[in-house]
Amino acid sequence: MTVRMLKRQGYNVLPADTPGEAMRLARKHADPIHLLITDVIMPEMNGQDLAKNLLTLYPNLKRLFMSGYTADVIAHHGVLDEGVHFILKPFVLKEFSVKVREVLNQNHSA
Q1: In whole angstroms, what is the distance from residue 56 CA to residue 61 CA?
Q2: I want to staple 69 with a disulfide (CB 3.0 to 4.6 A). Which of 23, 26, 56, 73 is the partner?
Q3: Burial level of 50, CB count in 10 A (0-12/13-18/19+)?
Q4: pLDDT of 77-94, one tens digit each?
Q5: What pTM does this model have?
Q6: Does the structure show a pLDDT above 80 at 109?
Q7: What are the φ and ψ backbone dihedral angles of 13, each rounded to 5 degrees?
Q8: What is the mean pLDDT of residues 40-67?
Q9: pLDDT value at position 103?
């Protein structure tokens, strides 16, 4: 669903079903990657670890974390820390679009 939302907004998207696939795509991708949008809690690797790994390839990568879990469940994953961009699922297209633009428009990576 998020891939369709982003494509409708005119963004180029590299969808990945797993963190491992995201890493493989990022290593092969020749152009800059500006934004990682990832779930906080996933099998194989959590979103914070995926972001840390991708930052080694793309140091200016901006990150937007999302989750359907409540704040108390995800708090220990670090995504509720100050300066970390987060959106709670489910969300609507307008809310998601505004959040993506907000993260991309920021001057530096959080």
Answers
A1: 9
A2: 73
A3: buried
A4: 556 666 789 999 999 999
A5: 0.88
A6: no
A7: -125, 135
A8: 93
A9: 96
DSSP per position, 35-79: EEEEESS-SSS-HHHHHHHHHHH-TT-EEEEEESS-HHHHGGGTT
Distance separating alpha carbons of residues 29 and 7, to the nearest angstrom: 18
User: Is pLDDT at 55 greater than 80 in this prediction?
Assistant: yes
Q: H or E element: which one contains 103?
A: helix 93-105
Q: Tell me, what amino acid is at 85? A: H
Cα distance between residue 66 and residue 103, in whole Å: 13
Asked if 9 contacts 35 with a C-beta cutoff of 8 angstroms, the reply is no
Mean pLDDT of 18-43: 95
